[in-house]
Amino acid sequence: MTNLASGPAIAANERQLRRAKKAALAAFLGGALEYYDFFIYATAASLVFSKIFFPAGDATVALIASFATFGVAYVARPFGAIVFGHLGDKIGRKNTLVLTLVLMGSATFLIGALPDFNAVGYWAPALLVVMRLMQGLSAGAETAGASALSTEEAPEGRRGFFASFAMSGISAGIVLASLAFLPVAAMGEAERLAWGWRIPFWLSLVVLVVAYLVRRSLDEPEVFEEKHDHGELVRLPFMKMFKTHPAQFFQVALMSFETVTNTFMQSFGLAYAVSVGVPASTMLWVSIVGNVIAIASQPLMAHLSDRFGRRPVFIAGVLGSGAMIFVYFSVISTGNIPMIFLASTLITAGTYSMSNAIYPAWFSELFNVKVRYSGMAIGLQVGILCAGFTPLLGTALVGAEKANWGPAAWIVAASSLLAVAGAYWARETNKTPLRELGNPVP
Fold it and tell me: What is the pTM of this model?
């Protein structure tokens, strides 16, 4: 009798595990595409765009303008979070994630086809900003949707582990972006500025096709389908979330400042290193090594949070990143290549992975299923919006004085303290059953 009873239970567990793995794969591939697209822009903004999309003149001013176009996507991200968060809580996670994927892929390909300043004048930066805004709208909801879906499909007690594959996908996207720019960085400047920089943008179509096919085959999470089938979804998830989860929204907004570390390293760090004589190709390899290891280390960190709690692992990682960033910029200023590799890897695959791998599950778990996509997407974008403009601020404060890296490090450290404050405030959720997460939503 026991064997007969356990048979259906075993089959149900196996079915859930298959769904969880499929959702994790979709999150990984989607994250890889979204952040391949997003970070080839960061690399191009650091190395190329200031020279071809803006009038000739002061190099520092042109670089600041280039980082400004990088930052406008972060202005669009909250709007993307509102629009696609609403759709994700109304029509479902799957279809919304397909929409964000196609929007990002289309914008990225079109960036590679844009004319430069010499060809069309100020239309060049204007068109660049439009495409970047499209990228921002998409990215505003990608991570939240993939995280919500992976969290809702995961077996009990393993939500952190399965949701973390969205972050491993982002690391894979950064690796692909860096690899795509290696041959571009090795080109002569004339070829790189004329046509070489366009190739990484066009290559995004390959990842887009693979990710699209996987996402189209997904099912909606059962916990969402239950609410949908019983007519229990709310009309305006965005407004309902603010009424029922105001504290959780501000907690997520504060904790999302942990993303400043990675944004600074991927954009300002690259530009700063090149300005002090470190070859761009070397810094791309630095990024590749750290993120390859992070692909594996992030699920491990998330597994630790499943066992020991989200809060202690997250806080340890954020404090570690805030301290290590001083070492990172210090060794860049000396041009010590081995130490640059070591410091960057310790942050990217170590301290930053500790916090970054955990937030997909933790942020999702703070909200009720009826407003989960909206709550996580919008809250997350507050800190990320600020992160998008920190490279511009860092460039302006550091200026042409190469030894003056202190302001950049202090921006990251201050952001880390804000994230720690949010983590102390937020509730621990790693042991809470899926259907009991978040506040009640009438």
Answer: 0.82
